[in-house]
UniProtKB/TrEMBL annotation:
Residues 22-177 form the D-alanyl-D-alanine carboxypeptidase-like core domain. It holds the Pfam family VanY. This is M15 family metallopeptidase.
Length: 225
């Protein structure tokens, strides 16, 4: 059984270091390495950009974006002027690309972001982790195509494959579905509300008053009509 502390990213006893920077759930290590080797045999480089993130790490990302220290984009990838946004507009801009602390799939060690490091380096590309980099003429296009055909063989899905009014399209985000499903089932709005209420998250009042909507639209990624 997955505890609230585990799916919220507060504690995690199932992590194994993959290298100096990245940790994954122990059940995901072998499927990822097997997929990575298979990709390499097909001439495709598949490297981690981001893997496990704790609640505190996600909180830091959120607060930096709220303060305007990091560029904000709308769900279509258009740059926004931080100073012109209302609190609600900032919430939606941040949630299009970054989860609420406690609501991130990266808390589980089952989800991670990948890129073609060789492609980026060979083209001297200023890599930003944006959708065009995974489309035709982008440095990660061949990787994206390979994942379309092969990721499912190793148990991986793209939870943000399409934009439906919630989280923006993320072709780089993979989730080990057999393992992540247990964390998905453990999620509940009551535990999330409690941890956010007790945190020092920026925009707390504006978030909490809309939390039921935000939970459904972004955390569960049901989007909106």
């Amino acid at each position: 059984m997955i505890s609230n502390e585990e799916w919220l990213g507060i504690s995690h006893s199932q992590l194994i270091p993959l290298d100096e920077r990245h940790q994954l759930h122990h059940a995901v290590i072998t499927p990822f390495k097997t997929m990575q080797i298979a990709a390499k045999s097909d001439g495709i480089d598949c490297q981690l950009v981001s893997s496990y993130r704790s609640f505190e790490r996600q909180l830091s990302i959120w607060n930096r974006k709220w303060a305007g220290e990091t560029t904000l984009y709308d769900a279509r990838g258009n740059r926004l002027n931080h100073t012109e946004l209302t609190a609600d507009e900032k919430i939606e801009a941040i949630l299009s690309w970054s989860a609420l602390p406690g609501g991130s799939r990266h808390h589980w060690g089952t989800d991670f972001d990948v890129y073609d490091r060789h492609g980026v380096e060979n083209r001297n590309w200023n890599f930003e982790l944006i959708v065009p980099e995974y489309e035709q003429n982008g440095p990660c296009y061949e990787l994206a195509c390979w994942l379309n055909e092969n990721a499912g063989k190793y148990g991986f899905i793209r939870p943000f494959k399409q934009y439906t009014g919630g989280v923006a399209k993320e072709p780089w985000h993979l989730s080990h579905s057999p393992t992540a499903s247990r964390y998905e089932e453990a999620r509940n709005i009551h535990a999330l509300k409690k941890v956010l209420t007790e945190s020092d998250i920026s925009g707390k009042d504006a978030i909490l008053i809309r939390l039921e909507e935000l939970y459904d639209r972004y955390v569960l990624n049901r989007g909106k009509l």
